[in-house]
Amino acid sequence: MPPYEIRLTKEALKDLKKHPPRLKKKLKEILINRVALEPYTGKKLLGDLQDFYSIRLTYQDRIVYSIDEERKIVFVHRVKTHYGN
Q1: For residue range 36-72, what is the model confidence (pLDDT) as tens digits?
Q2: Closest CA to 32 of 80, 81, 74
Q3: How would you classify residue 72: left for phi > 0, otherwise alpha for psi between -120 and 50, otherwise beta?
Q4: Dist CA 27 CA 36 (whole Å)
């Protein structure tokens, strides 16, 4: 069992519905094989998003998440582009 539990917010689930099955599978692999094992490997964000991390899903799409270290839970907040599309 991975050291961190993964939970998707309502916003992330809404974003996920817009992705094709291929990207959903890729997202699952990234979350299980990378984020759940070592969440701090993501890019630490700055400014208003300073408590969040980001990992690339596609050229445009990012997985944006936060880490509850005390409860060992990673909360996925968004799974979408950051280019305004």
Answers
A1: 999 999 999 999 999 999 999 999 899 999 999 999 9
A2: 74
A3: left
A4: 12
Q: Nearest Cα to 5, choosing from 51, 63, 71?
A: 71
| pTM of the model as a whole | 0.92
Q: Residue 7: left (phi > 0), alpha (psi -120 to 50), or beta?
A: beta
**54 CB-side CA count, 13 A:** 16
Do 65 and 4 touch, CB atoms closer than 8 A?
A: no
Q: How confident is the model over 4-18, as pLDDT tens digits? A: 999 999 999 999 999
